[in-house]
Amino acid sequence: MRPLRSIDPSQDRNAVDVSVQASAIRINPKRGAIMNMHPPGNGPFGKAEPVPILQQYGALPWRVNRQGFLEVLLVTSRRRGRWTVPKGWLVKHCSGSQSAETEAYEEAGAIGRVNAAPIGSFRYSKQRDDGSAEPCNVTIFGLHVLGTLHNWPEMSERKRRWMSVSEACDVVGEPTLAAFLATLRSKSIDASGLAPETALPSTRQDAPGNLAAV
What we know:
The chain is an alpha+beta fold. It has helices spanning 18-25, 96-108, 165-171, 175-184; strands spanning 33-37, 50-64, 70-76, 83-84, 87-88, 110-114, 120-127, 133-149, 160-164, 211-213. It is globular, with a radius of gyration of 22 Å.
């Protein structure tokens, strides 16, 4: 491809390089995408060019065990079986926290009270069916688990497991998620933003026989 020629507006104010238009047309933000910037020089005329970063919402299901220590509930991803938090796209007509609560229910069978405000975020590379990868930002909301379901929507597709925060840091597949979890080891529940009194009432109603207390 030929290098872009510079355009002098004083010579031709209507001149436009066709390759620049084609480059701009290829930028199609996807559902849930936010905008990021390429490093200077990668866009038209050497300027920064916006590109989409996918946006998801995740839950960190948690409880305090009988010894008084914080535990988190992780699930495996469907594609590669790596440990991660329940996460997904923004649910139509729902807020970010409500979407996170839905993912915890569908992926982990966790019922509880979700925090209205996020407690952190991490970024990972989301694999596409064609083998390519795209950057994806995940905003995390705490979910104080009141019970777990014996049967839930994705139980045949994933594993779930309660573990300590230290163990979770060691087994998660994304280094950025591990880094976020590591920040919880040195914080109290109140300092981490997980305080139950700041959580919203659960929107899930399930048959008592399908719900196990934690």
